[in-house]
Automatic annotation (TrEMBL):
Record-linked PROSITE patterns: HTH_LYSR
Family to which the UniProt record says this protein belongs: Belongs to the LysR transcriptional regulatory family.
Pfam families: HTH_1 (PF00126), LysR_substrate (PF03466)
InterPro entries: LysR_HTH_N, LysR_subst-bd, WH-like_DNA-bd_sf, WH_DNA-bd_sf
Record-given protein name: LysR family transcriptional regulator
Length: 308
């Protein structure tokens, strides 16, 4: 006699209601997003809590809902389950030939204006039924968001990335020195030895790994920080006004600031290893087909970019 197959008591519909409510922060907003009545959504949530034997939300009148610790623990898996079901439905509707659905890509803030527009344009031209959304944040916050399931994957620097992530190498970048034309080293065309700058005022791009700590730590140097900012263009503007120098990685095509002031870029003479840009995603998740398609697209995109 074959063993009985136990049918799951949980409803995918109820799980989708849970995810939507957690993302929206209120029953009314989630109901509107799902096209349900508030009463119907509330009933689905209550039924799911009874099935699981835990409270998923703290309900407060006029303040929406707050997800409980128990709800937070199961939310990433619930999101993953809903996405897998959506992909399964897309396969049956499209016979596996077309990609669809949403793809949320995290991006470290210095990458965003340089890479995201081109990636969005070219990827959606190939896959018009995939809705791509970019989220800008610090590298550490992006890692937390991926583990929480709110972001599918992220474009990051391969510096201090946690052990819970898969990586796909995209390209290498080399750090450089940014100077004002008035700086004493600006007229030289030779690579700059950072020991000649270590006592000068340094303008630091805050937000790991954008601070480029690895550049100075590799050389056993400590810069004299005069100004800090998390804004890439603010760093460039301060350098152009000759308030100090900066060490950056991302290199815009133009060598002037928003004000139109010129900047001078010089390579670094010291032996500083290049920095890898990667796509990262949690190792414990199943990437949807659209996610794997985005990885393959990025590999092709950056390979072509190297040869331009």
């Amino acid at each position: 006699m074959e063993p009985r197959v136990l049918l799951p008591r949980l409803s995918l519909r109820k799980i989708a209601c849970f995810v939507a409510t957690a993302d929206a922060g209120s029953v009314s907003a989630a109901a509107q997003r799902l096209g349900l009545s508030q009463a119907g959504l509330s009933e689905a949530l209550s039924d799911l809590e009874k099935d699981l034997g835990i409270n998923l939300f703290i309900r407060q009148k006029a303040k929406g809902v707050t997800i409980t610790c128990a709800g937070q623990q199961i939310l990433p898996e619930a999101r993953q389950l809903v996405r897998q079901v959506e992909e399964f439905q897309a396969l049956t509707r499209g016979s596996g030939t077309h990609l669809s659905g949403e793809l949320t890509i995290g991006c470290f803030h210095t990458f965003l204006p340089i890479l995201a527009p081109a990636l969005l344009t070219e990827f959606t031209a190939r896959h018009p039924n995939v809705k791509v959304r970019f989220v800008e944040d610090t590298q550490r916050n992006l890692e937390h968001s991926m583990l929480a399931g709110t972001i599918d994957m992220s474009i990051l620097y391969d510096i201090d990335v946690g052990p819970d992530f898969e990586r796909q190498h995209l390209y290498y970048s080399e750090a450089y020195v940014l100077l004002s034309p008035q700086h004493r080293l600006a007229n030289s065309t030779d690579p700059v030895d950072l020991s000649l700058l270590v006592d000068d005022p340094y303008i630091q791009l805050d937000g790991l790994p954008g601070r480029n700590d690895h550049v100075f730590s590799t050389l056993g140097m400590k810069p004299q920080i005069a100004h800090r900012s998390t804004n890439f263009e603010m760093i460039r503007a301060l350098v152009a006004r000759n308030h100090g120098y900066a060490v950056l990685i991302q290199r815009p095509k133009h060598c002037c600031t928003y004000e139109g002031l010129p900047l001078v870029i010089r390579p670094i003479a010291n032996p500083v290893p290049p920095i890898a840009a990667i796509l990262g995603w949690p190792s414990n998740i199943h990437l949807p087909r659209r996610g794997r398609a985005f990885i393959n697209f990025c590999l092709e995109f950056f390979k072509e970019k190297e040869h331009r």
